[in-house]
């Protein structure tokens, strides 16, 4: 399976923070935001990753992340000229995807929790589509999924007035190769965008959409607003301070996945100067 990080969009809800820089390059405590979705794909065992950015920010992402080789990964880049919807990622990434399965994670979503890697890895062999479910108090604000005891989806709705469950759909999706053809066939919504919900509904019609439930021990943040960004920053800060561990340290994940050697892990610390990130790598 290959992976895509969609790091486009204008980030207007975070303005003026995003006037001069992509929101996915903003800090979430001690790391750029994009480190977190990349870490999610890496935890799923995905090493070939396409990063889709805005045209004006592409060079900044390349400067930050390079080609991924220092992580035992392969990073490539494409641009989304206009924010035409999440589903456009599969059209932009068609040649990158090739004949493989693909996972999409949104560049402003942060996931953390015990058992997350195992849950993600359970979906990389998906036959059809796989989405995730996260319990929330206000499901009417989100895409909402309902499912049966066999984890087959029975309904999926976008911001329903009367939700059929309290499970929101967070910004990570796993699909087989049919997703490219499906994305090409869907029509723009009333917002003028190619909606990811339309793709999920097509898999639902085919009875090939399953769901993985994120348990109470897992956390999800959509950092698209200032308050949500602040909440995520505080969460990461407190957790790292109390547990003496680092969330989304890409080099640590690569080492634990046996993608890089111990020597390469230690050598990577020099890239980060004398900061806390480099100090953490040196303690591993």
UniProtKB/TrEMBL annotation:
Task: Provide this UniProt record's keywords sorted from A to Z.
Answer: Magnesium, Metal-binding, Nucleotidyltransferase, Transferase
NCBIfam families, per the entry: rmlA
Instruction: Return the CDD domains for the record.
Output: G1P_TT_short
Which metal ions or organic cofactors does this protein require, according to UniProt?
Mg(2+)
* GO MF terms held by the record: glucose-1-phosphate thymidylyltransferase activity
- Biological role: Catalyzes the formation of dTDP-glucose, from dTTP and glucose 1-phosphate, as well as its pyrophosphorolysis.
Q: What is the lineage of its organism?
A: Bacteria, Pseudomonadati, Bacteroidota, Flavobacteriia, Flavobacteriales
**One Pfam family of this chain:** NTP_transferase
**Family membership:** Belongs to the glucose-1-phosphate thymidylyltransferase family.
- EC annotation? 2.7.7.24
Protein name, UniProt field: Glucose-1-phosphate thymidylyltransferase
Pinpoint the Nucleotidyl transferase domain residues. Answer: 2-236
- Where exactly are the transmembrane stretches of this chain? none
Top-level EC class as recorded in UniProt: transferase
Catalyzed reaction equations: dTTP + alpha-D-glucose 1-phosphate + H(+) = dTDP-alpha-D-glucose + diphosphate
